[in-house]
Design brief:
The complex is a heterodimer of chains A (692) and B (563).
Chain A: H1 12-24, H2 28-31, H3 35-57, H4 62-98, E1 104-109, E2 112-117, E3 126-130, E4 139-149, H5 151-154, E5 160-163, E6 170-171, E7 176-179, E8 181-186, H6 194-203, H7 211-232, H8 234-244, H9 255-265, H10 268-287, E9 290-292, H11 295-303, E10 306-310, H12 311-315, E11 316-327, H13 333-344, H14 350-363, E12 375-378, E13 386-392, E14 398-404, H15 406-415, H16 422-433, E15 437-443, E16 446-457, H17 461-470, E17 474-478, H18 483-493, E18 497-499, H19 504-516, E19 521-525, H20 531-536, E20 539-543, H21 548-553, E21 556-558, H22 565-589, H23 591-602, H24 627-651, H25 660-690
Parallel strand pairs in A: 10-17, 10-19, 17-18, 19-20, 20-21
Antiparallel strand pairs in A: 1-2, 1-3, 3-8, 4-5, 4-6, 4-7, 4-8, 9-21, 11-16, 12-13, 13-14, 14-15, 15-16
Chain B: H1 3-31, H2 38-53, H3 63-86, H4 103-114, H5 124-127, H6 130-160, H7 170-196, E1 206-209, E2 215-218, H8 223-232, H9 253-278, H10 281-307, H11 327-340, H12 355-366, H13 377-394, E3 402-403, E4 406-407, H14 410-436, H15 438-441, H16 448-463, H17 478-507, H18 524-540, H19 543-558
Antiparallel strand pairs in B: 1-2, 3-4
Helix pairs in contact in B: 1-9, 2-7, 3-4, 3-6, 3-17, 4-17, 6-7, 6-8, 6-17, 7-8, 7-9, 8-9, 9-10, 9-11, 10-11, 10-12, 10-18, 11-12, 12-16, 12-19, 13-14, 13-18, 14-16, 14-17, 16-17, 16-19
Classes of the chains: A alpha+beta (692), B mainly alpha (563).
Chain lengths: 692, 563
């Protein structure tokens, strides 16, 4: 599965397979899952029997035959819609299966290494994996660090680091170790690994109907019963009218005509497309490299109205960037920049690199190689909370250049008998208030100045949040920063609210509070300590790079480990629900035109004078050719509209981040009004074709 | 139409719109237990009632026991009215010495009054004694309307409360709505009616000699008190057979105007009460507007059909069966009001309406009596349509559907569908049965499509708990008494039970706060949607049958053929 795989709606193989499947799906045991289409199938069988009975009795009716054929097509088209949606998932599942080839695992029993099949591994077993090995099953790294190629599941070819402890300990079966060696404790039973679950999901074979889908099915079944009532009682009213117009009762409505009327009235369009819409919603998530554990989660995503977003990675670029040098009194800015660059030359952190780059860009100070200067790099440690270089000059004097937090540098300078100016303290607190991180630079006992490290808010994120606000979604920024810094960034990014100095417990509490107020909360997280919050949230997206605990707790996994995904997931959920609602509206609105086609056609003889054209022909506002062509046109339209709408069901209706009211107006105009008008045009055109 | 006609219709609507918030606000106070003016007048009676019946007015119950209380209460009412009809000749207050009623007519009548339908298979003055009319029917007129309000109140609590199973106390709701709303308004109206000449006495029927020397019996009785509540409680069961076309029920243009206003007054005002109780008066007015638009559309079409020339009779207005004292406009305004509001009282014979205005009357019944509808019943029926609308259209905003913050899920949809199905089941299946069986066809006085319309009308009226009749049908037969009786029961409780279940289920849910992403139920877009769903779901079901009845009759009339 490629990350940026182009979305191809149809290809020849899928279409051929779907055509085959739509016949297999005629199996009544499968059809009954869809009550509306099941009724159509029953009607098709009945009509077919009547056609054959007619042949045996010697009064073959080509009209009945045509009705029967188109009724069968209605069923087949509905099956096809479902099959093609499933087919796209199956293709993805097949490519996943290739990665699940029978691998051997190196299981540790005591200190012995035993070679076993991957499928024999139980939860709790420990295996060794080293470079070149395929990780046999899902597990957690308990010892070592390794780079792992996860392209089999993420499609991303750049290897990722997996190490014991911390938040990057989870490994997935089917991925490949590229370097080093790790010990992995297996955390899943065979058959329920991540890849297994993915295959089941994309295939949609065991797909359960989601709550909203169930509710909609009930509505559709209810409408079907109502129209069934209307149709089965019609022969009685018709018989009364025949008697009243002095016509023989033998002219009463035939069963094929009644079935045709019924099939046209019941919501076959949405009935036929409903499961395709659900499957393709899941599919759209997978195309975004997000795996949902259930279809229910996608629906909930559409409902989410509070998003808890981690500041780092979602709102700001992961790293702070140096944006300015502020020299101390008596120090030139060039001197400060030079020292800052020196101290960062061997600092491989993104912050360090940004300092080197800023010095180069702003003051044209070229980067130097540390070993040319006979300097030794002092890395950052949790104890010293600073980093820098020690340079021996020719006269043997030692230059100690350091950068670090205000506190750490203060101690450093004071230990060297230097002093820490008040002005620097002011600058430091001013920068902190602005939401920036100040780094103080010192050389031996002298303070040189301050580096302004800034959280860079992602481009376009403010716009994104404004869109979310329009859609009625509240954004809450979560950060470990102090309240001052957090407030500054929150204001810059345009979030609605923020939580500063947030602990995982705070997150959990916040989610519970929002839920108690009736909100549905979505969040994304990775660490083990995020797991309770992920489980509590209505939508919990775990990053694939995270721990196994987080991945188990959430109801979705983001393979790209991209925190912005949360917003996309919400959009997929909304689009799914919109598509469902729009096509339901379209389907119901279609009925108006079908009445005007069929009722005048079947009632033309009633109360007619000599010419045989009764008063109800006045309702034939489409001026359809003949009663038979009118009925046939309605049935044909009813069948082919399913096929015509398959691409829409698969792609989803066009989605725009607008308010509920704007979305409703738009969809109502297209699918409500369009649903009333389209069949008038469609039926008329088909009638013209038939009567050519 | 004359200037007076237009002026009167305009005045009618102005008064209705003006009175809605006044009475609505008063009812809000009554039902939410706030202080109101009647408390000082009748508060002692409420306390006495609880003391006498042993009701703890503070104790609240869940939807099952609320419903159980309601069903028991209605059942006892039914048995009582049924029995006193069977033995009325042995009971007091029977000056005309009327005999006991047949069992099937008694069944039909007691079901009819218990369900707030007031279908009258019998002729009032020649069938029922004063005792039965007063102790049996008039009492049911009050409590059946109060029952409708009680169901609505339980539904309101289900919607506005959260995570609870308590829906209030049925007995308290019943007592308060009767005592503080129905009784004061009825007394007020009855006094005005008596002042205008409506009879109110216990005299024996008068026998007079006409100028031609013939004898004529002038019926008497306690009419004004029953008429007031039959109008206000959307009951409609007349004291006399010809209902409000009888000069003793409806003597003057002023009483005619008041009685019409009384039909719509409580159902209209309840929309305001509803809005206020669920926390959005805007939503209440939205529902009012939907009802008003549908009402005005029906009225306009009816008026047009009546005033447009009938080719068969040259260019005269159709006066047959109209209230000749008050004119066409008043007959049509009444026929639209009484069918829209599940009242069923008449001042003109609907059988004689033009095919199209007859169809409007049937459509009013067929869409489930939600255009103002019965007291309480119209609004909870409308909420069913709102739930369907929210469910179908709500998805289009990209959220799972919710109504006033409550999620609409499979259970609610299922119940809403049952509530829509139940009356339609009665209308379609029973009408179909009647139109092919000898027993059904025997009651018809008219041939052709008009006969079919009569059958459809009867069952729509029963299922919608309306009670008005297309007078051409002789329905006091075993077949019609039983089938219509069953139809009324299904039409009433087939809706009440699912509504109560919805109330119970909704009460247990959380309330999602309003945001820009919420599907609004208080703007013009929603008005259009709701009207669309009512017409499509409620109307399309019956289009085939209607096209074989009134539509074909209209088309034939234009070709010069009448029935």
């Amino acid at each position: 599965m490629g990350t940026k795989q182009k979305i191809i709606l149809f290809n020849k193989n899928i279409v051929l397979q779907a055509a085959k499947d739509s016949i297999i799906k005629l199996n009544p045991a499968l059809l009954i899952r869809n009550p509306v289409i099941f009724i159509v199938a029953l009607g098709s069988v009945l009509t077919t029997i009547i056609v054959f009975a007619g042949i045996f009795k010697g009064n073959f009716s080509s009209f009945n035959l045509q009705i029967a054929i188109w009724l069968w097509f209605t069923v087949l088209f509905a099956n096809f819609a479902e099959a093609i949606a499933e087919g796209r998932g199956k293709a993805q599942a097949d490519s996943l299966r290739k990665n699940r080839t029978q691998t051997k695992a190196r299981k540790l029993v005591g200190k012995e290494e035993v070679s076993v099949f991957a499928t024999e591994l139980k939860k709790g077993d420990i295996v060794i994996c080293e470079s070149g090995n395929v990780i046999p099953s899902d597990g957690e790294v308990i010892e070592g660090i390794a780079s792992v190629d996860e392209s089999a599941i993420t499609g991303e070819s750049a290897p990722v680091i997996r190490e014991s402890g911390g938040d990057r300990s989870a490994v997935t079966g089917g991925t490949k170790v590229i370097s080093d060696q790790i010990l992995v404790r297996i955390t899943t039973e065979p058959g329920s690994t991540f890849i297994d679950r993915m295959i089941t999901l994309v295939e949609g074979a065991k797909r359960k109907k989601t709550p909203n889908e169930i509710a909609l099915s009930i509505l559709l079944s209810g409408l079907t019963i109502i129209f069934l009532l209307a149709v089965v009682t019609l022969p009685a009213f018709f018989g009364y009218s025949l008697a009243a117009s002095g016509l023989p009762l033998s002219q009463n409505l035939t069963i094929p005509i009644l079935i045709a009327l019924l099939v046209c009235l019941i919501p076959t369009t949405i009935g036929g497309l409903l499961s395709a819409i659900g499957i393709s919603g899941m599919d759209r998530l997978i195309q975004r490299n997000v795996i949902a554990t259930s279809g229910r989660a996608i629906e909930a995503a559409g409902d989410v109205d509070v998003l808890l977003l981690d500041k780092t990675g979602t709102i700001t670029l992961g790293n702070r960037m140096a944006t300015d040098f502020i020299p101390a009194e008596g120090v030139t800015v060039e001197e400060l920049a030079d020292a800052a660059q020196l101290s960062s030359l061997s600092d491989e952190t993104p912050e360090g690199r940004s300092i080197v780059i800023l010095a180069k860009e702003k003051f044209n100070i070229r980067g130097r190689k540390v070993h040319h200067l006979q300097a030794s790099f002092i890395p950052f440690s949790a104890q010293s909370r600073m980093s820098g270089v020690d340079i021996k000059t020719i006269n043997g004097k030692l230059h100690q250049v350091r950068k670090g937090s205000s506190e750490a540098i203060r101690t450093f300078v004071q230990n060297n008998n230097g002093f820490y100016p008040q002005k620097i303290m002011d600058i430091v607190s001013e920068l902190a208030r602005q939401g920036a991180t100040p780094l103080v630079v010192a050389e031996n006992n002298r303070i040189l100045g301050v580096i302004h490290l800034k959280d860079i808010v992602k481009g376009g994120i403010k716009q994104r949040f404004a869109e979310l606000r329009k859609m009625g979604i509240k954004t809450v920024m979560i950060t470990g920063d102090n309240p001052l810094t957090a407030a500054a960034i929150a204001a810059e990014a345009g979030v609605d609210d923020f939580m500063a100095e947030a602990t995982p417990e705070d997150k959990l509490r916040r989610i519970r509070e929002e839920q108690a107020k009736g909100h549905l909360v979505g969040m994304i997280g990775d660490g083990t300590n995020d797991a309770p919050a992920l489980a509590q949230a209505d939508i919990g997206i775990a990053m694939n790079s995270g721990t196994q605990a987080a991945r188990e707790a959430g109801n979705m996994v983001d393979l790209d480990s991209n925190p912005t995904k949360l917003i996309e997931v919400v959009e997929v959920g909304k689009q799914l629900l919109m598509t469902r609602g729009s096509l339901t509206t379209f389907s119901i609105a279609n009925d108006v035109a079908k009445y005007f086609a069929i009722i005048p056609a079947i009632a033309i003889s009633l109360y007619s004078g000599r010419n045989g054209i009764g008063p109800l022909s006045a309702l034939n506002i489409m001026n359809l050719g003949s009663p038979q062509s009118a009925i046939l046109s309605a049935v044909i339209f009813n069948a082919i509209i399913i096929i015509l709408l398959v691409p829409l069901a698969l792609k989803g209706v066009r989605y725009k981040p607008v308010s509920a009211n704007a979305a409703l107006t738009r969809n109502l105009l297209i699918f409500g009004l369009g649903g009333i008008i389209a069949p008038f045009i469609g039926i008329k055109l088909i009638d013209l074709l038939i009567n050519l | 139409m004359t200037f007076q006609d237009i002026f009167q219709i305009a005045l009618f609507f102005l008064l209705l719109i003006g009175l809605t918030p006044v009475l609505g606000n008063y009812m809000y106070k009554v039902f939410s237990g706030e202080k109101h003016i009647m408390l000082s007048v009748l508060g002692w009676l409420e306390k006495l009632t609880y003391k006498f019946t042993g009701v703890d007015s503070e104790e609240e119950s869940n939807w099952k026991s609320y419903t159980f209380g309601l069903l028991m209460f209605n059942f006892i009412g039914f048995v009582f009215v049924f029995l006193i009809q069977l033995i009325q000749s042995h009971l007091p207050l029977n000056p005309a010495n009327l005999p006991n009623v047949s069992w099937h007519s008694a069944f039909n009548t007691s079901v009819s009054f218990m369900t707030n339908t007031n279908w009258q298979g019998y002729a009032g003055e020649t069938t029922l004694s004063y005792f039965v009319q007063m102790i049996g029917l008039t009492v049911q007129n009050f409590v059946s309307a109060a029952t409708g309000i009680a169901v609505l109140l339980a539904l309101i609590r289900g919607i506005s409360r959260k995570t609870t199973d308590k829906l209030g106390n049925f007995w308290t709701d019943l007592t308060r709505s009767t005592l503080y709303v129905l009784i004061p308004l009825s007394i007020l109206l009855a006094i005005v009616l008596v002042g205008q000449g409506v009879v109110q006495n216990f005299k024996t029927y008068d026998t007079v000699h006409t100028l031609q020397g013939a004898q004529q019996i002038i019926p008497m009785g306690p009419a004004a008190s029953q008429i007031a509540i039959k109008q206000l409680g959307t009951n409609g069961g007349g004291f006399f057979n010809s209902n409000s076309a009888h000069p003793f029920e409806n003597p003057t243009p002023f009483t005619n105007f008041l009685e019409m206003l009384a039909i719509l007054l409580i159902p209209a005002s309840l929309t305001y009460t509803y809005g206020k109780m669920v926390g959005s008066t805007r939503h209440g007015w939205t529902i009012f507007t939907v009802m008003m638009i549908l009402f005005c559309a029906g009225l306009s079409i009816s008026l047009y059909a009546e005033y447009s020339a009938n080719p068969v009779f040259g260019h005269l207005h159709l006066m047959e069966g109209k209230e000749t004292r008050f004119g066409i406009a008043n007959s049509v305004l009444w026929s639209t009001s009484t069918t829209a509001a599940s009242n069923g009282s008449v001042n003109a014979m609907h059988d004689s309406l033009s095919p199209i205005s007859g169809m409007i009357a049937i459509i009013n019944l067929m869409v489930g009596e939600v255009i103002f509808g019965g007291v309480g019943a119209g609004l909870y029926g409308m909420v069913i349509f709102i739930i369907l609308t929210v469910f179908i259209a709500g998805l289009m905003v990209g959220r799972t559907p919710e109504y006033l913050g409550k999620k609409i899920q499979a259970f609610e949809v299922q119940m809403a569908i049952i509530a829509v199905l139940a009356p339609n089941f009665v209308i379609l299946l029973f009408s179909a049965w009647a139109s092919v069986s000898n027993a059904g066809l025997a009651g018809l006085n008219n041939a052709g499509p008009h006969g079919l319309t009569e059958i459809l009308y009867a069952f729509s009226s029963a299922a919608g708990n309306n009670g008005s009749a297309f007078a051409g049908l002789n329905a006091n037969t075993l077949f019609y008494n039983l089938s219509l009786g069953i139809g009324m029961l299904v039409g009433r409780f087939g809706v009440i039970l699912p509504v109560m279940a919805i109330a119970g289920s909704m009460a247990g849910k959380k309330i999602t706060p309003l945001s820009a992403g919420t599907f609004r139920t208080d703007n013009s877009l929603f008005i259009i949607l709701l009207i669309g769903v009512i017409l499509i779901v409620g109307g399309l079901t019956h289009f085939p049958a209607l096209s074989l009845g009134p539509i074909i009759e209209h088309l034939l009339m234009n070709n010069g053929i009448t029935f």
